[in-house]
Task: structure prediction
Amino acid sequence: MTTEGSKDKEHGIGHLAMKTPIVSQQEWEAARQKLLVKEKVFTRSRDALAAERRRMPWVAVERKYKFDGPKGKLNLLDLFEGRRQLIVYRAFFEPGVFGWPEHACRGCSLGADQVAHLAHLNVRDTTLVYASRAPQAGIARLKARMGWKMPWYTITDSFDADFGVDQWHGHNVFFRDGDKVFRTYFINSRGDEAMGSTWSYLDITPLGRQETWEDSPEGYPQTPPYKWWNWHDNYEAETSPDPKWIDILTDPEGAAARRRDEEERGCACS
Result:
């Protein structure tokens, strides 16, 4: 018989033998501020690493790799969908993989569940796709079952072996200059587990987030932060933002300071 106590243990609920200090709100805030110093150092270090990625050398992709898609045969250039940057995640969904044919690899599936809305990547000239060795009929069935929306193609040649993802998952990053394709970056193993947000994807691309605060080589496209952000269904529409938001979009820190000043003066502005 299963008791309530055993259920709690099974689900990790109940008393834990943890010796965590319990402090006042003031002591907690002091500890947070102390740790925040280190967190800001970490953030700046991550920014510096992304800046270094944007200066990585590229290697030309000479072979015309072939894929199967929902509408037929494609090559690597087609996967860009006309954009300049392409991220290809090699997901394991094929005969021999645990879960086949109902499911893809558990880890790859967890990663797929984390993928942000692709409109935010697309507007930054970046396409994200998944690729496996499963046939398209199986991929379509899996996507419908799991509610996944990313383009997902079938590998038909040595693409996975040539780009280090025949035995393990990984993200390969490519850049298109006209009809020429270059491999610019590769991330796998534990680096993969952090992927999924718009920012984590853009940070591994050669152009980055394309915002003015970034340390990028001269001539790289950049626009002010916040200003390009939009609802995912509104990037193609003509936007007329409310005037009260323009200040926030163009100068968020200054806008916050001005709002505080107004509140201190007792301004009733909304």
Observations:
- The first strand starts at residue 59 and ends at 60.
- The longest helix spans residues 25-53.
- The domain at 59-202 is CATH 3.40.30.10 (Glutaredoxin).
